[in-house]
Amino acid sequence: MDVEPTNVSRSPPRDELALVPSVWVDDGKGLRKELISFSCKSMKKPSELSRCLVKIGDVSDLGTRESNFLKLDEPGNEQWISMGSSVTPIDYYVEQILAQMFTNERSRCTISCKSGSVSFVLELLRIEDNEYYFTRSSAQMLTLAKQYKENGVKCFAKYPLLAHQFFNRAAKCLLSFAPLEYLDPAIEGADTIASIQSLLETLNLNIAACLLKQNRFDDALHMLEYVDRQNNPSPKAIYRKALAQFHVKQYTEAVKTLQRIDYATNKECSTLYANIVTNLEKEKEKYNSMVRKMFG
């Protein structure tokens, strides 16, 4: 009787392949995943808090793009990826694709960029810590929000859009316990509640900075509305609000905003104040000139 060699690989049965889409596409993000193989031992997908053991190989066209996950010098080696840990755009999209995979799935993945596409083969070997936000306590969510915030700070200078994603994610972690004023100090801990409120204010400023960098000045003003309700706003909050007002030509309002603090002692604020006054005078002169032409 013939014995089948043990080293011959078999294609998975059709009923197993039917469990996983042969092609998954996210046109909005330029992502594509084509199934190569799948062994149905578990129908688990990674959650937002999972650690995933993966194998990545056959990376092509990465070029000069930064990535901590796609390692050209270590092709095919196993590595752990913690969801939400990426600090480069390529790695962020690797996570987005990974979130759509099942354990023991192997797929050809493509990330479309402005100049070309990055391609690689991704295999999900194991998932650990497959938890979800709603299972976490306020203290645990505070720790997670701090982690997301630090990731945002790390990538803000080079990748402000990615930083914006992290700051938003951190804020959502904290706002899942809103309204914060109803949290019970006896249950959540007074220090935890105070830390949540403090971090949320910092995140609002960080998100406003991202919006300013994207020239979304009206959105930044909306994000900074809370500054008007503060008795002692920080110079950073005042500066960013006044800067947004300056860019939408609310010069008078911007001056009033800066005058809420001793702006002259802050280099950024004093420079902005001078620019606002200069533009305010130009606007007044332009208006006076128009009046003279109409009625002079």
From TrEMBL:
Bride of doubletime-like TPR domain location: 139-221
Pfam families the UniProt entry points to: Bdbt-like_TPR, FKBP_N_2
Residue ranges of every copy of the BDBT FKBP like N-terminal domain listed in the record: 24-128
Database matches in InterPro entries: Bdbt-like_TPR, FKBP4/5/8-like, FKBP_N_2, TPR-like_helical_dom_sf
Domain of life: Eukaryota
Protein name according to UniProt: (northern house mosquito) hypothetical protein
Organism, as annotated: Culex pipiens (House mosquito)
